[in-house]
Amino acid sequence: MRVAVLGMGRMGRALAERLLERDFTVTVWNRTPGRAGEVVARGAAEAGDPAEAARDSDAVLFSLAGDEAVREVMLRLAGVEGPIVADMSTVSPDTSRALREAAPGGRFVAAPIIGGPQAVASGQAFTLVGGDRQLVDDLRPVWSEAFAAYRYCGGDPGDAVVFKLLNNYLLMSSVAVVAEVVAIGLATGVDDMLLRDFLFGWPTVPPAVHNRIDDILSGDHRGWFTTRLGAKDVRLAVDVARSAGIDPPIARLVERRYEEAAELGWADADIGAVVELLREARHAVQGEK
User: Fold this and answer.
1) Are 145 and 20 in contact (CB under 8 A)?
2) What residues contact 89, with CB distance under 8 A and at least 6 apart?
3) Nearest to 19 by CA among 180, 135, 139
């Protein structure tokens, strides 16, 4: 199967590498040249623009930063007939629905990914798929070969995105709460290794947060899911809630925490860096004493 992957961020590169390992013919494109070198070295072809990448492909997979980027790239595919476009980015449900209207021939599905780049590269991630069932079935080789599993969310592509945003909000809020637990525990002087053991063992700590416990404890923050992206995803979840007549106070607070972390210099650090807000606040209080 011939697949174009548009967007060579960490997720896009991991997706392209996974497809190459599963013997797909892969063409890649990125807005900024030079980011596809490793993928090209593994056997992918690099295109000069999205239309060139899509032209001889059976499927075009978006892995882009946000709503503006996916809308722009879809416009650049105008006139390219044939391939099914699958957007794997995290965008608003309304954007996903608009992409279906803009896609050549309406051949579009939403397919946001649950899992990080490492999970994608190892085939352990899964995807939520929404759109015309026949188009979804036509892309079954992608779902079955590149992912551990996929779940069909119905004919409205926006519904798949709603589920993704709810999932990401749960992750962001859980990380923010665990960060507070770590900051409080360390500030009281408890043993950090004992705290670590408890966090990994307590059933109250979601398994999805386990891979960030060491990051939060150590202050390393070199992961891939940045505070800036985290704030964006929670903001989209808040927008979804408000469009349904709910104003979610906790979600608005979580959104603001990640925005503050980004504003204080942690914009490109992993979401575990939200703990730094508490550390800096404590240092400020100690400095006043």
Assistant:
1) no
2) 7, 62, 63, 64, 65, 66, 69, 70, 112
3) 139
> For residues 176 and 254, is the Cβ–Cβ distance under 8 A?
yes
List CB contacts of 264: < 8 A, sequence separation 6 or more: 276, 277, 280
**Share of residues in the chain with pLDDT > 90 (%):** 93
Q: Strand 108-110 to strand 45-46: parallel, antiparallel, or no bridges (unpaired)?
A: unpaired
Q: Tens digit of pLDDT for each residue in 253-276?
A: 999 999 999 999 999 999 999 999
> Is 96 within 8 Å of 119 (Cβ atoms)?
no
For residues 275, 278, 284 and 285, what is the CA-based torsion angle, rounded to 10 degrees? -150
Residue appearing with tokens 């500030």: 187
Name the pLDDT band for 146 (thresholds 50, 70, 90).
very high
Question: How far is the C-alpha of 94 from the C-alpha of 88, rounded, in Å?
Answer: 15
Reported as type and span, the H/E element at residue 98 is: helix 93-102
Query: Residue 35's pLDDT is what?
Result: 86
What kind and span of H or E run contains 13?
helix 10-21
Which residue from 159, 282, 277, 133 is spatially nearest to 219, judged by alpha carbons?
277
Reduced 3-state DSSP string for 107-125? CEEECCEECCHHHHHCCCC
One DSSP character per residue, 202-232 reads -TTS-GGGHHHHHHHHHT----SSBHHHHHH
This prediction has a pTM of: 0.94
State both tokens at 234.
């929670």
The two tokens of residue 127 are 């995807």
Alpha carbon dihedral 11, 268, 93, 164, in 10-degree steps, equals 60
Contact 45, 73 (CB under 8 A): no
